[in-house]
Design goal:
This protein has about 290 residues and is mainly alpha-helical. It has helices at about 10-25, 25-40, 50-60, 75-90, 95-115, 115-120, 125-130, 135-160, 190-205, 210-215, 220-240, 245-275; strands at about 165-170, 170-175, 180. It contains twelve helices and three strands.
Length: about 290
């Protein structure tokens, strides 16, 4: 890969130094994000963010051939603004400001070395970095509680269609004569994780911009449908094999992410089969 003008063998060294300096300057914020990712099950998806960022960047590596080191002045400006957000988070004890400030400082440090041309070509990967910041659960709870209630109602309806007596009551699902408790296990608490999957799929596939935006906005609906598809067999197994609920609960979150990805992939395949122009580059015979 050949980069544009203004690059030399020291550019990489400068970039490494800038990244290290940004991380060290905001080390408490990065440590807090790491702790959230490793100790909080709801934020476990954060460990996938670096892989998503790297994947989106690799998909766009050929765009760097004409990228020059222009607009370097934007880096210090972004770093100063992000530093202000970070300091505000530290003074007020606002975790989200602390996390966003740390991520912004990192982006500003890289921008100071590579310039705005590279940033614009790698914009989807740069935006994906913000998924490193855990979404405050207080923001998600109103949405997840309502979607969770709808999920259990739909799940109970499907079980009835399959000939299995079921009743949704609050956050619990009764299957047959057993009462299967699903409190905190609806999978919809992984809304941010499904948002990451939807974003990665949308910008990792050569889709039209409108389709990409639609996929990201449809993340709550994708979460609901994927969760229903997971809960139906889960409820059946839990009703007839209660000892398996512990293992199933641990695997259920990742299974929901897999189902969400398969739904998105299947949806694009259906659009292509129906000859709906979803892809950015359509073949001549399509």
């Amino acid at each position: 890969m050949i980069l544009g003008t203004g690059w030399n063998r020291w550019t990489f060294v400068q970039g490494v130094i800038a990244v290290l300096a940004a991380v060290v300057a905001c080390l408490p914020g990065w440590v807090d994000m790491y702790v959230s990712a490793t100790n909080d099950a709801d934020n476990g998806y954060i460990v996938l963010v670096p892989a998503v960022v790297l994947w989106l960047a690799l998909l766009r590596r050929r765009r760097l051939r004409s990228a020059g080191r222009r607009g370097l002045w934007m880096g210090p400006v972004v770093a100063v603004l992000a530093g202000g957000v970070y300091v505000h988070g530290g003074l007020t004890g606002t975790s989200l400001s602390l996390h966003l400030g740390a991520i912004g400082m990192l982006i500003g440090a890289v921008l100071s070395v590579v310039g705005r041309s590279v940033l614009l070509r790698m914009l989807p990967a740069v935006v994906a970095l913000f998924f490193l910041a855990p979404v405050p659960m207080a923001w998600l709870l109103p949405l997840t509680e309502r979607l969770g209630a709808w999920t259990l109602i739909v799940t109970a309806g499907l079980l009835e269609v399959l000939g299995v007596p079921a009743l949704a009551s609050g956050s619990e699902l009764s299957v047959g004569t057993n009462r299967v408790a699903l409190v905190g296990d609806s999978g919809l608490r992984m809304m941010a994780a499904i948002g990451l999957v939807s974003y990665a799929f949308a910008y990792g596939t050569p889709l039209r911009q409108g389709v990409r935006v639609g996929i990201v906005l449809a993340a709550p609906l994708v979460a609901l449908v994927a969760n229903v598809l997971r809960l139906v067999p889960y409820a059946l197994l839990a009703a007839h094999w209660p000892m398996a609920t512990g293992v199933l609960s641990q695997l259920s979150g990742w299974l929901t992410l897999l189902l969400a990805f398969l739904m998105l992939y299947g949806g694009i395949r259906v659009l292509r089969y129906a000859q709906v122009p979803a892809l950015r580059y359509a073949l001549a015979y399509q």
